[in-house]
Amino acid sequence: MTIEELSARLERVERSNRRLRAGAVAALVLAAAGISMGQASPTPRDAAGKERASLGLRPDGQVLLWLADESGQASASMGVTKEGLARVTARNGENRPDAQLYTSPDGRCGLSVGDGSGKLRAFVGMDQFGGPGGLVLLDKDGKVTSRAP
User: What is the pTM of this model?
Assistant: First the structure.
């Protein structure tokens, strides 16, 4: 792979990271705006009366929106901690995170993908594994097996 190809790939990853961060921030701003305006809406429930979504402020200061499947299991959530870490999480049927998009107050952002058992297997973004960022693949034990660029 040539320097030009690596440079082009890095540019695409950085552009993607900017879009991911902008999208997450926009969604969180909308959620925070709804809370700050003091507008209360009824808790969404399905025909059987099961709660399917919730928006609130947790005791630890985190603003959290979660969406549940038909069984009441949280399938997706979006939140912001009081420290400013913003994240969107998708969970599987066993309530384990399958994918997570996040932005942090220090400017890092990324997308992590699990293997269904709750273990991180792939990461794209500003690298939390000691590198400059890009794509990182991990084995079942959490050890880095591949990195690009």
Answer: 0.60
